[in-house]
Structure formats: structure tokens, C-alpha cells
Amino acid sequence: MNAITRPTQSTPRLTEAYKILLALLIVFSLALNGTAQAAFAKTAPADTVKVFSQPKPVSLARLNAGLAPNQPVLVAPANGATSLPVSQALSVNATDPEGDPLTVSFYGRVKTAVTSTNFKFVVLPDTQYYTVNTGGDAIFNSQTQWVVNTQAANNIVYVSHVGDLVQNYDGVPAEWLKARNAMYLLETAPANIPYGTAVGNHDQGINADPDSTTNYFNTYFGVSHFTGRSYYGGNYGSNNDNHYDLITASGVDIIIVYIEASGNPPATAVLNWANNLLQTNPNRRGIVVFHNLMGATV
Fold first, then answer.
1. Residue 168's closest CA among 159, 160, 179?
2. Would you list the domain boundaries of the chain?
3. Among 179, 185, 219, 277, which residue is least crowded by beta carbons within 10 Å?
4. What is the pTM of this model?
5. In CATH, which superfamily holds the domain spanning 120-290?
């Protein structure tokens, strides 16, 4: 059997049958002056391709079309910020490389409610008769000892004495020792219950006179006694007649401000101090302890 041979064919030069469409070629080059240029090849059959020898400038603005906006920059509030006011402005810096207007949207989620535990405050008013009457100190002691004994069961987080620790002003040491002994029971470990005391009109050298002495009050309940305690916030002036505490209970932040008793409205400077404390702690629940009844004299 004779072998069948396939006739050889010579590859013809590019003809219409083998014309190839070439995609539009864009070649960018930077001129010496930094202007972007491009050389274009026209889509055409392979044997009729014409290449433009002179590159043509291309607008950079046109080349940048469709670029994404720049990453926004947070302005306020700071990332991870805490203790924010109830009404907080949200602010970011957002820019577009092409200068196009942007629409900024903020997305939030409802914070899951935190199940909190009930807590209690204990208020001790006008204990002066316990310090002046025979046997009264035992009653005073039993009150504060009860607070210590039941602190865990009742979740007592703070004790506030609203003033008139003693009866006979700033001059009878025995009364002040009884008041000290009773109140210091709150400091007994492991309870160590936070507490504060207001200056009542019977705790001053002259009744209802904030300019008179409070020597015994500041001896036993002064700045030096409370400095370093986690809940003690600070004081006004040179003594502890006006002071404040900061506590947190079951996730609730609280500020307690104590203002000294006065036969007249408190001094403007003291009121400004107290007001500034409340203004600078907007996320804390505020309690003001003042021996005077509101709108009345002592």
C-alpha cells in the first residue's frame, strides 16, 4: 500500500483571511515635564496597522475617574472613648481624590441592656442626741455596726451622714469622740464601706456660720483622713467642709457633693465649685448633700 502524503502548504503572508484584530494598545510614558502621555494603536487588520509616532497627552483627571474616596478619619468621639454625654456629636473627615461630593452615613446598633443588681444607700441624719445623751453612743454604734453586718446581704454601697454629728458645736471633745467611734466602724474590714459626712449647723463653732471653725470635724473627718481612699474625690478650699465622693454601683456612676450648712445661701464660690463638679461629670448621677432644707434656714 502506498503511503498517502499530505501536500505541504506554505504559510501565506498575512492576508484578509488571517487578519487579526488587535486590541487598543495604550502605552503611557512620562515626559520630562511630568505630563502623562499615551501612544495609541488603531484597531485594524494586521497588515493595515498604523502606529501614531507622536504620543498624545491624556488628561490625568480622566485617568483617575472612578477612584474610591479616601479612608475617613475619625474626629469625635475618640475610638474607645468612655463616659460620653447622653447627646454626642459624631464627626469624621471624609475626602474624595477627585473632589466629588460625598454622602456620609453613620450606622449604630442598640446596646444590649445590662442586667444590674439593686444596691442601697444608707442615710444617717442628725445623730447629735446620740452623742450628747448618756447611753446614746451605744445606739449610734449599733446603727453603723448594723450597716457593716448587713452590707453584703443588702448590697449597701455607700453611707451618707447629712450633718449634725454632735450637739454642742465645735467645743466638746467627748461628743466628737463618740461620733468618730461610731462612724469609723464603717471602715472595719472587710466591709470598708465608702461614706461621707456633711457639716451641720451644730458641727460649727458658731451656729449656721460657715466662716466659723470646724476644727473637730476636720480632725476626725478631714482631708487627711479620706485622702487615698478610692472613692474620695477631693475638697474645696483648705478643709473638708465642702467635698465630694465618686462611686460606681452596678454600673451606675455617681458623684456625691457635700456642702456645708449655712444660715444664708452658700457662698457663690462654693456654689460655682459644686456646679463645676456636676458639669464636668455629665455621665454621673449627681447627689447634693446639704444640711439645710431646700429654701429654708437651719
1. 179
2. 19-60, 120-290
3. 219
4. 0.64
5. Metallo-dependent phosphatases (3.60.21.10)
